[in-house]
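[step 3/7] inverse_fold.run input=structure_tokens len=165
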């Protein structure tokens, strides 16, 4: 049986003990986390964060102080959970508004403080729509029908620095 020293009282105790028999201090299990393992965990968390932020449209566009009755180009997108088949039959306006939500929820988070700031991402949103359209138009479309547009978009945004601020 391996022995180790209690951090509290210094007495040698079994490494399997949950508590020090001498002073009662809880013994922490030593978890070996290699840095490579940590990077993978961080990466998985990062991807998870992107997907989760893509599920809900950003509130940035709705909490603006300016209330307008006419819809702006970045408002009203509802393709956040669409499949590629649904994306394919959607209007360009809808795609563009959805793409702006994806961008504002990820790389542009914190960069959009007023409605006019959205003009900055219009070109990027157009790029993103084109990129998703390109995937949708690919030869493998039938196999991709079940895929979510937001998964494609998340991958595209992650890979392309051009879509950032
Ligand atoms: Zn102890």
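[step 3/7] decode complete -> sequence:
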């Amino acid at each position: 049986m391996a022995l180790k020293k209690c951090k509290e009282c210094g007495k040698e105790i079994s490494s399997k003990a949950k508590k020090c028999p001498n002073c009662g201090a809880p013994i922490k299990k030593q978890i070996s986390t290699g840095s490579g393992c940590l990077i993978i965990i961080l990466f998985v968390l990062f991807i998870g964060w992107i997907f989760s932020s893509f599920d809900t449209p950003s509130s940035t566009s709705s909490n603006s102080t300016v209330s307008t009755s006419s819809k702006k180009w970045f408002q009203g997108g509802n393709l956040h959970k669409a499949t590629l088949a649904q994306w394919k039959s959607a209007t360009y306006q809808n795609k563009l508004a959805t793409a702006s939500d994806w961008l504002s929820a990820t790389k542009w988070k914190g960069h959009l403080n007023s409605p006019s700031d959205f003009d900055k991402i219009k070109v990027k949103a157009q790029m993103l729509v084109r990129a998703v359209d390109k995937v949708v138009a690919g030869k493998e479309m039938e196999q991709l029908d079940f895929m979510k547009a937001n998964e494609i978009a998340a991958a595209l945004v992650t890979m392309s620095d051009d879509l950032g601020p």
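[step 4/7] annotate
The chain has a mean pLDDT of 80.
Helices lie at 35-55, 84-88, 92-105, 118-136, 141-144, 149-159.
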